[in-house]
Design goal:
The complex is a heterodimer of chains A (about 425) and B (about 325). Chain A has helices at about 5-60, 85-90, 105-115, 150-165, 180-190, 225-235, 245-255, 275-280, 290-295, 320-330, 385-390, and strands at about 65, 70, 95-100, 125-130, 140, 170-175, 180, 200, 205, 210-215, 220, 260, 310-315, 360, 375, 380-385, 405. Chain A is an alpha/beta fold and about 425 residues long. By secondary structure, chain B is of the alpha/beta class. Classes of the chains: A alpha/beta (about 425), B alpha/beta (about 325).
């Protein structure tokens, strides 16, 4: 058979070899690629560790210590968030937080305040009876105990004005078992000026004509209010009358012409709370409980007790401090549009103009597109044709960038 | 000799091209001779990253949002009525459809009465009922009322996943050779997985209704065994950082643990920002969770999430 010449044969051989070698080559490449996937799955552990390490390192860089005060260098930010509005408020509404503590509760309570909410203040000072350069705390030169509370308060405020009068516009007093959402406090204060004599907190009505603010729930004085408080003691208009610090302070401020303000949100829901969230949200206050007679504004039980933009809670133990920090700053429902969307503070730079309107997801029948229900501030649903909403900043709603899809909720059956 | 060599080379070149053409034409995957069971064998399911979502076009986003709708199967018992009532009043309102399956009927609350004392038999009946009544819902979330779920975060996890693929997701636990999803942290099943499951229910050998008398597996393990026969494997739900999204413990327990394990970074070291479930929560803790998840937030911080999910009608605790 002369048909199968040598070169012919070589050609066929070459063909077979070529096919086979490329086959194995491709297989090797594919194998390597598929190996890469499970390897990626191994990385998570280290990335979580890396994150927390970075945060640890960052923690020490967040404060610059100026005497006994911790001056906030880095306003804490969260990955993936747009905090432009919060940052603006941080610059405009400067808050000095002073925390009432003592040597016996420094490690059990104050330490957790330092690790959580106080990081959001512009300046934080821990006030104790004893000076502690490591924590650091200011030594007020008083004793400890309930009977020293007003002495500590008086001295703490004097210290704050003297040493940090120019570092802040508002001065917050909190206990070491108070949890404060400082960003929400800035929102409450944003439409007021610190040059007016004002003070905010959980308002109680007895014993003072205009009422006074609960000590445990935390209260805030404007700079002018603080000046008047200090002035009151200088001129002996105010003196140490009783150790009940919140009442005594309220009475002094009233004498000095400082106004007790309404700190409730635009739906008249309380922002400062004298108890833990569970108590306000689910507890029923018995009618004989002192609370009913003390609250300046009507008590609301159940979910409307508390504003979405809650400012404070009291009797918060260490574990709840971290839990509240988690709920406030970390845990969220992806894409959830809050019912309560109050208008932005006056004069704040408007958010970027709305770009595209949200695309409406179809619901229920799956054929006819439903109109997006624009839930107003009170949660009322007002169906608006989409063309109306274009370009209009209605109700200060959160601006919607590209590629957002809205799904309205209709329950089946 | 040279002509033979060159013919050989020509032959090789042609052979290589031939192989490539075949590979491209048939999407021929030389390495993947895996059996259908192994095809889905990775154990971690990750939530989509921001990049991934931003790459989607708007019509694609609309499609995905339409598809990701959840049917909640809540397994209740009258003897713990308060948990049932709480689930009804809290997280289950965020399901596209929430159906309560009870062991026995009770006048107090509405439920599908399965009239069944055995846990596994009850679960089977509930899943079969859910499958038959799914309508156009394609994702199923099974939980007991002691579990708190954030359905929005579940939707985020499932957003780019195809429910016509078999998915069985949650917090996975390994017991010997069996990897199963822990019941207390909620079980997620895609339509395909549920369909296969309902089919294998009919097979008394592989998936018996009453279990073999000798040793009785818990229902979560039984479920895993039956699913395994149909080629569906348990996968651990994680966020983009690898943190588990399904938790069998409550927030306070996890925070407590974190205070011991990571005292310098308690919150970061604890739980995911987009966690889907927490187990072992008391009714009043669940009411507080509604506030913590759906309402409490710091003013001025916005997340430009890729989609908007509106609050349910007629509810005031979220």
């Amino acid at each position: 058979m002369k048909g199968l010449s040598g070169s012919r044969f070589c050609f066929y051989m070459g063909f077979v070899v070529g096919t086979l070698s490329l086959y194995f080559f491709l297989r090797q490449v594919w194998f390597e690629r598929s190996m890469a996937l499970p390897v990626l799955g191994e990385v998570p552990g280290s990335s979580v560790a890396a994150l927390s390490w970075a945060r640890q390192a960052g923690n020490t860089d967040n404060w610059s210590v100026k005497g006994a005060a911790l001056i906030n260098v880095n306003h804490p930010h969260h990955t993936g968030e747009d905090s432009r509005v919060a940052d603006q408020l941080y610059q405009r509404v400067r808050i000095l937080c002073w925390v009432m503590t003592g040597p016996s509760t420094l490690q059990s309570k104050a330490r957790h305040v330092k690790a959580t909410w106080s990081r959001h203040c512009n300046v934080v000072v821990f006030m104790s009876s004893v000076n502690d350069p490591d924590f650091p705390t200011v030594g007020l030169g008083t004793g400890e105990g309930r009977d020293q509370l007003y002495w500590k308060t008086i001295r703490a405020f004097h210290y704050a004005l003297l040493h940090h009068g120019s570092d802040a516009d508002w001065f917050l007093k909190a206990d070491d078992d108070t949890f404060v959402v400082v960003d929400n406090l800035r929102w409450v204060l944003s439409n007021h000026t610190p040059e007016e004599p004002l003070y905010f907190g959980k308002r109680f009505k007895p014993f003072a004509k205009q009422g006074y603010m609960s000590g445990g729930a935390g209260y805030v004085l404007s700079k002018e209010a603080l000046r008047r408080f200090v002035e009151g003691f200088r001129t002996k208009v105010c003196t140490h009358t009783t150790p009940v610090e919140d009442l005594a302070l309220g009475q002094c401020l009233e004498k000095m012409g400082v106004l007790a303000m309404d700190s409730r949100d635009t739906l008249r829901r309380e922002t400062f709370h004298p108890f833990v969230p569970e108590h306000h949200l689910t507890g029923k206050f018995s009618k004989s409980f002192w609370y009913w007679n003390y609250c300046y504004y009507p008590i609301v039980e159940g979910p409307q007790c508390c504003s979405d933009l809650a400012v404070s809670f009291h009797y918060v133990d260490a574990e709840l401090m971290y839990t509240l920090e988690y709920w406030t700053y970390h845990l969220r429902a992806y894409g959830y549009r809050y019912r309560y969307r109050p208008p932005p503070p006056r004069g704040l730079m408007e958010q970027l103009t709305q770009t595209e309107r949200p695309v409406v997801g179809t619901v229920g029948t799956g054929t006819t597109p439903s109109v997006i229900t624009d839930g107003g501030v009170g949660g009322e649903s007002v169906a608006k044709p989409l063309s109306d909403r274009r370009g209009k900043e209605t109700l200060g709603s959160v601006p919607v960038p590209n590629n957002r899809t809205a799904v309205s909720w209709e329950r089946q059956g | 000799m040279l002509s033979e060599g060159s013919s050989f080379m020509k032959g090789m070149a042609l052979g290589g091209i031939f192989c490539l053409v075949l590979a491209l034409l048939g999407s021929f995957t030389p390495g993947m001779q895996s059996s259908p069971e192994d095809q889905h064998h990775h154990h971690h399911i990750k939530a989509p990253s921001t990049d991934e979502l931003q790459r989607l076009s708007e019509p694609q986003m609309v499609e995905l949002t339409k598809k990701v709708r959840v049917y909640c199967v809540v397994m209740v018992q009258p003897k713990v009525l308060v948990y049932w009532a709480t689930a009804k009043d809290t997280w289950s309102k965020h399901c596209d459809q929430a159906v309560f399956y009870s062991s026995e009927s009770t006048k107090a609350l509405e439920a599908v009465d399965l009239n069944e004392k055995d846990e596994w038999a009850r679960l089977r009946k509930a899943l079969k009922h859910a499958y038959d009544n799914a309508g156009d819902l394609r994702w199923f979330f099974v939980a007991r009322p002691t579990t708190f779920a954030i359905i929005e975060n579940l939707k985020y996890l499932l957003l780019v996943k195809d429910p016509n693929e078999p998915f069985y997701i949650g917090h996975t636990v390994k017991s010997g050779e069996l990897e199963y999803v822990e019941y207390d942290s909620g079980i997620v099943l895609s339509y395909e997985a549920l369909e296969r499951l309902v089919k294998v229910f009919k097979d008394e050998e592989k998936c018996p209704e009453r279990g073999r008398a000798l040793w009785k597996l818990s229902e979560e393990k039984q479920l895993a065994v039956c699913l395994k026969y149909t080629g569906v494997f348990a996968e651990n739900g994680e966020d983009v950082h690898g943190k588990g999204l399904f938790n069998g413990k409550s927030v306070s327990s996890l925070i407590e643990e974190s205070m011991v394990k990571n005292p310098q970074d308690v919150v970061e070291g604890c739980c995911s920002d987009l966690a889907v479930t927490f187990g072992g929560m008391s009714p009043s803790q669940m009411q507080v969770m509604m506030f913590g998840v759906y309402r409490l937030r710091p003013y001025g911080h916005d997340f430009h999430d890729s989609l908007i999910l509106l609050p349910p009608e007629g509810s005031d605790n979220d």
